[in-house]
Protein 1
Amino acid sequence: MPSICDRNITKEVITQLEHAPQPPKSQLLEVRFGAVKDLHGEPSGIFKEPHDEAIYVGLTGLAGDEHVYAPHGGVERAVMQYDADHYADWRCESSPFPDLFQLGDFGENLVATGMTEANVCVGDLYRVGKEVVLQVSEPRDPCYKLNKRFQWPRALKRITRTGRVGWLMRVLQTGYIRKGDEMVLLERPHPQWSLLNVKRVVQGKSVPLELVQELMELDVLTETVRGYAAKRMLTATKRYRLVSAENVTSRVKHLTFELDEHNLVIHKPTFPAYSFAKIDFGPDFSISRSYSIVSGDMNRFTLGVALDDNTRGGSSYIHSKLALGDEIRMTPGSDPAGIEAEEKCTPDAIDNRIIIIGGIGVTAFLPSIDLCEAQNLPYEVHYAVRSPEDAAFVDRIPSSRLKLYAKTQQKRLDVQELIPPPSESDGRFTTRIFTCGPNRLMDTVREHAARLGYPPHLLHFESFEGAGKAAKDSKPFNVTVHDEEAGRSVQLRVEADKTLLRTLRDAGFDMTYLCERGGCGACKVAVAKGEVCHNGMGLLEKERGDYMLSCVDRAVTDIEILYD
Ligand code: FES
């Protein structure tokens, strides 16, 4: 009986993998190939016709089969197969055009029954007919064109979540195949690695990293899937131990952590630009805080943590209780909007970078300062502190670039003097302004830059105050949450002292988030109706009209959002 598949790989918590059952002996219901055609205004190789005659299968696929993009075919992806029984299931879903799901519509070359992503493994060898031998190379990586193909905006999402993606194969033995040929399993070197398990390990919500490592080391895997596994390894939460802690000022500790999972191999462990570390520590890892990376890579990294007068317990725990040898968990985060803005700031567009820092805000920009030095980019650092002794990490900033403003020496950082107006000759802005410090300093920079008319991509703010808390003077608002997958809507009230993110989590929504300061974009939700005031920097330019950051943005009317 066909049914709606309620599997959602992206929400799965995986602890171990079962071996896949063997597929039954299967017969080819159809053999298909075709030329590139128009798919609603785009060329696509998805249209394939069934053929009854014997078809030659060469190393790069069926004779006469075409692809638009080279990576969609070639030796590693010569032949595609899809389970015929999936189609009845698709027709039971909520697609507006269920009749578009007919045999061959996923663009497969081979149509057979009984073989699915759950009982076919990467590395499996199948004899097809008398001559051809195929080796399963990867689960298909579905793309947005499937939304067009099935005229259903949720198609790609549903295909990804259910894992009903189909698979690709190499041709180890060329020859002829035809409709009615048998497909027989010859060898199964990796019974644990069903195509479904590969997808679950790459996309699941949580997975033991030993499994990711094992997947990366599979010799039969394509480089594409190996790359996904490597990315998973990079971005996953990992265990570290504190190996050194020193006071760099009376209020700032410099902490070094080393990876405690020695069996893991992290390829390219460098933190990307604008990275931060979300660390979980304390009893049962119940305290979570995000800090900028001071130096190092994912094998060994350092943080600078200031003792916060308004602490919620995080910095005081680190200063007074976190001991050498203690375990923490670290999840790396990044700032895609910061990277997007940086890409626009080419050397011919920007002739200076002004870095304005208050207190421990210095840690936010140490990697950027290193980068400016390495690339010989012009920059200047203006650093406000209570006294010269409070200035942390000044040894990381060349003295020729640094201007220190110590309150005890009556030196005052004047934002209005620092931020240059646009060029008198052509009205262009050619300075990029970076700011990290207390909210008062950030607000002053924000207001002055706005008065001068600075474009947003030239302003970069890093906030370290009030993570997870609603800003002072926030107003309450009502939100209707449409849960598309569950087919329900829920009405919630976001109180003045609470963020939308915390409200959603308290109501049982499984939210993704990291920094809780509006910097990383991880907590974004789509806004279907209503007006929003954006307080964070974590949305890409193209996202600003359609999304809000649930950790910092506020609604100014009743709103409707999509939980997906
Ligand atoms: S969690 Fe990072 S922007 Fe909201």
Note: The two ends are 27 Å apart (CA to CA).
Protein 2
Amino acid sequence: MNYGAIKYCDIANGVGVRTSLFVSGCRVHCPGCFNGEAQDFSYGLPFTRETADEIVESLRPSYVRGLSLLGGDPMEPEHQSELLALCEL
Ligand code: SF4
């Protein structure tokens, strides 16, 4: 799985302060997609264990409410096992 961006202390993609992960790859092809580069499954950087550990660390402060999974489409089958593992971490 690749990802296009990680936003820390994000207040635009969910309730409260969050970490937002934008995974790469989407087959929905909405008309007027706001994030066209993220439709490409090879866009961005490889998601590694180190990336996952950085995200987990970012969620530790008490002011952080949670993790938002965005894209691309985080529900694409190629993403599900790694994102489930991240959520379990
Ligand atoms: S990235 Fe989002 S807006 Fe763009 S086609 Fe996919 S679901 Fe639609």
Note: The beta strands are 2-10, 17-23, 45-46, 64-70.
